[in-house]
Every structure is written in C-alpha cells, then in structure tokens.
Amino acid sequence: TLAQGQKVVPVPVRGFSFLVVGCRGWWEITTKMLRNLLALRQIARRTISTASRRQFENKVPEKQKLFQEDNGIPVHLKGGIADALLYRATMVLTVGGTAYAIYQLAVASFPKKQD
C-alpha cells in the first residue's frame, strides 16, 4: 500500500516497457505483462461480481428428498457411484495404511543382528 500522497507513476523505458516507481522501489514491466495484469483485474472483477450472469436451478429440494428417503442405503452412499467409489478408496487406503503401519512396527521391534 502507498503512503498518503504517494502515487505509482509509469515511466516509459524503451519502446515497449514501463518503469513503475512506487514507495517500495521500481520495477520494469513490459506491455505484455501490463496487458495480462489488466486482463486479470477484469476477470477478477467479473468473477467477484454479485450479479449472476446465469441463474442456476435450485436442486436443494431434490437432494433433500433423495437423502431423506428410507431405502436402507447408508446416508454416506446415497449420492451415487461417486460416493461409493470414494468410500471404497477410503477403506482401501485405511486398511492398507493400517497394515503397513503394523508391518513397520514389527520390523522395528526386531532389529537386525550386527556381526
């Protein structure tokens, strides 16, 4: 941030770059970098905007109905195939990690004999 009364002043250096002087020093910025920076500011302004360009359909009532349905499926699997795959991957990693930890404890508990 700049102190009160200070400004960032672009000073032309060569044909296609600027020397930007601020309160913390100076930087040489090419016009391509400047264009990219201005485009980034424009994109950031667009994405943070409170006005939505398109309206999304409210799917909350459908999801509530799906998850409150009494069909014998556990709630953590009611989301479909993605939930089932995530659950299985979690179980494989948990069981595999536990087995590996027990193996490493067994290896560490019997040190190698020194000759």
UniProtKB/TrEMBL annotation:
Major location category of this protein: mitochondrion
Pathway where it operates: Energy metabolism; oxidative phosphorylation
Membrane topology: Single-pass membrane protein
One Pfam family cited in the UniProt record for this chain: COX7a
Location within or outside the cell: Mitochondrion inner membrane
One GO MF term attached to the UniProt entry: oxidoreductase activity
SUPFAM superfamilies: Mitochondrial cytochrome c oxidase subunit VIIa
Family to which this protein belongs: Belongs to the cytochrome c oxidase VIIa family.
Alphabetically ordered keywords of this record: Acetylation, Membrane, Mitochondrion, Mitochondrion inner membrane, Oxidoreductase, Transit peptide, Transmembrane, Transmembrane helix
Classification via PANTHER family: CYTOCHROME C OXIDASE POLYPEPTIDE 7A, CYTOCHROME C OXIDASE SUBUNIT 7A2, MITOCHONDRIAL
Name of this protein: Cytochrome c oxidase subunit 7A2, mitochondrial
GO cellular component terms given for this protein: mitochondrial inner membrane; respiratory chain complex IV
Gene3D superfamilies: Cytochrome c oxidase, subunit VIIa
Organism superkingdom: Eukaryota
Gene Ontology biological process terms from the UniProt entry: mitochondrial electron transport, cytochrome c to oxygen; mitochondrial respirasome assembly; regulation of oxidative phosphorylation
